[in-house]
Write a structure and sequence with these properties.
- The protein is mostly beta strands.
- The protein is built from 1 helix and 9 strands; from the N terminus they run αβββββββββ.
- It has one helix spanning about 1-20; strands spanning about 25-35, 40-55, 60, 65, 70-75, 75-90, 95-110, 115-120, 125.
- The strands form 2 sheets. A 5-stranded antiparallel beta sheet has the order 3-2-6-7-9, with no helix packed on it. A 4-stranded mixed beta sheet has the order 4-5-1-8, with no helix packed on it.
- It is rod-shaped.
- The termini are far apart.
Length: about 130
């Protein structure tokens, strides 16, 4: 009788342990690609991206750009995104120009794992 209860108890523990799923993927790699206006060719670009968590209000920033995009490890969730910087480009008339730019979004979900992607159009600022 005691062995029967022991086997049942072990079986129940094994079943309960197998049903439990460990959720340890709290982070994602947020990748943001900046979309350029159609009438320019980018020669050089630099900027800073700031992500503010809509859940915790904590902010993180990076200035490490890869081409026209950023990547950063963040907690999965929703973010407010602000990007600003400088761009050197050739316009449709062949003129080389330098300008400030800005990009903004009030809500961007970075919730997928292991990588979350988003795109944001830039606005060229008049000097």
């Amino acid at each position: 009788m005691n062995k029967g209860l022991l086997y049942i108890a072990l079986l129940m523990i094994a079943l309960l342990a197998s049903c439990h799923q460990e959720q340890d993927d709290y982070f994602t790699e947020a990748r943001l690609t900046l979309l350029m206006p159609d009438n320019i060719t980018v020669e050089q670009i630099q900027g800073t991206m700031t992500l503010q968590s809509l859940n915790t209000t904590l902010s993180q920033s990076t200035a490490d750009m890869e081409g026209t995009g950023f990547r950063m490890q963040v907690l999965r969730g929703a973010y407010k995104v602000d990007v600003e910087g400088m761009i050197q480009y050739t316009d449709q008339d062949g003129q080389s120009r330098v300008s400030h730019y800005r990009a903004h979004a009030d809500y961007v979900p970075f919730a997928d794992t292991p990588i979350s992607t988003a795109e944001l159009s830039i606005t060229l600022l008049q000097e």
